């Protein structure tokens, strides 16, 4: 086959016997050597221009024939490094960036970017940047330890009752009794009274203004409680929750439409002492009677 471009060249030296039809095989005419060298230079220049700097016009459903990067690795489980970008400096917060620009704007003006950031301690994080009419802005990324963060709202799809959502957290856990952690929310502070929560907002109001919330609170001594908050036209307020020991309280009253409430017996000493203006109801293991304990710790039989 005539070697009309760099992509026609063979890695086997003996197979390269011509350059664009110019004979360069053994005992080739000396008169063709000058033209062969000039043609090689032209082919290399053309390849660099088309592969690295040239424009590519693609049509939907039609494979791009120029400017691509291709490998032929066939070993299962292995990967081929198709593109390597390196910053030879080691300064903290220096980056190397892949800029993806589907417009005629200048690079870095309106584009999407994937950036590798050096923190100066051999740790490399990965940032994702997008543009909304201006220079690319960081929207999220992966830390060096693998944690993912998102600076913007993660948007899902609107669905009706009984309709499977378009976007969901899907996992696979086939071991009986095992639990698959689908989401992890963490506050890296350890101060008492701090917490993390999920804000559920079925309105157009800003989050935390009119919504329901599930909050995990840190008591500062390895105890984590969970509380529920609802809103009645205002900022969500606490309506109940579970203590670290498993006790449950309801602020607005407990209503049981049908059925029964099953209570596990406990001793008077183990029954928690409530706060001021509240009572703890329990069935005493000593005599199996329903009793109450006030904020002073006093216990009385009910009925």
Keywords:
303 residues; mainly beta; five-stranded antiparallel beta sheet; 7% helix; elongated
Task: Give the SSE map.
Blueprint: E1 18-19, E2 22-23, H1 33-53, E3 95-100, E4 112-118, E5 124-130, E6 137-142, E7 148-150, E8 195-200, E9 212-218, E10 224-230, E11 237-242, E12 248-250, E13 280-283, E14 290-293, E15 299-301
Antiparallel strand pairs: 1-2, 3-4, 4-5, 5-6, 6-7, 8-9, 9-10, 10-11, 11-12, 13-14, 14-15
Report on the architecture of this protein.
This protein has 303 residues and is mostly beta strands. Helices cover 7% and strands 24% of the residues. The termini are far apart. The longest helix has 21 residues, at 33-53. The strands form 4 sheets. Strands 3-4-5-6-7 form a 5-stranded antiparallel β-sheet, with no helix packed on it. Strands 8-9-10-11-12 form a 5-stranded antiparallel β-sheet, with no helix packed on it. A 3-stranded antiparallel β-sheet has the order 13-14-15, with no helix packed on it. It has one helix at residues 33-53; strands at 18-19, 22-23, 95-100, 112-118, 124-130, 137-142, 148-150, 195-200, 212-218, 224-230, 237-242, 248-250, 280-283, 290-293, 299-301. The protein has 4 domains: 6-53, no CATH class; 95-150, no CATH class; 191-255, no CATH class; 257-303, no CATH class. It is built from 1 helix and 15 strands; from the N terminus they run ββαβββββββββββββ. It is elongated.
């Amino acid at each position: 086959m005539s070697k009309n471009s760099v992509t026609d060249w063979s890695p086997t030296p003996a197979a390269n016997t011509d350059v664009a039809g110019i004979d360069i095989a053994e005992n080739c005419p000396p008169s063709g050597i000058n033209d062969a060298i000039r043609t090689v230079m032209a082919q290399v220049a053309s390849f660099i221009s088309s592969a690295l700097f040239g424009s590519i016009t693609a049509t939907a459903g039609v494979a791009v024939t120029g400017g691509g990067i291709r490998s032929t690795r066939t070993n299962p489980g292995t990967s081929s490094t198709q593109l390597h970008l390196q910053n030879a400096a080691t300064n903290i917060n220096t980056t190397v960036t892949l800029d993806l620009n589907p417009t005629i704007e200048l690079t870095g003006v309106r584009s999407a970017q994937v950036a590798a950031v050096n923190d100066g301690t051999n740790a490399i994080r990965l940032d994702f940047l997008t543009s909304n009419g201006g220079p690319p802005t960081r929207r999220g990324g992966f830390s060096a330890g693998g944690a993912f963060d998102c600076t913007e709202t993660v948007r899902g799809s609107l669905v009706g009752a009984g309709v499977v959502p378009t976007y969901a957290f899907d996992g696979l856990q086939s071991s009986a009794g095992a639990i698959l952690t689908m989401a992890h929310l963490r506050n890296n502070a350890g101060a008492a009274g701090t917490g993390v929560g999920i804000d559920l907002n079925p309105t157009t109001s800003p989050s935390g203004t009119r919504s329901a919330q599930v909050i995990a609170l840190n008591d500062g001594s390895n105890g984590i409680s969970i509380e529920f908050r609802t809103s009645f036209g205002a900022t969500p307020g606490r309506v109940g929750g579970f203590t670290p020991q498993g006790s449950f309280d309801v602020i607005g009253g407990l209503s049981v439409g049908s059925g029964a409430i099953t209570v596990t017996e406990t001793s008077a000493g183990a029954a928690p002492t409530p706060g001021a203006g509240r009572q703890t109801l329990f069935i005493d293991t000593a005599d199996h009677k329903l009793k109450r304990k006030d904020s002073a710790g006093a216990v009385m039989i009910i009925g």
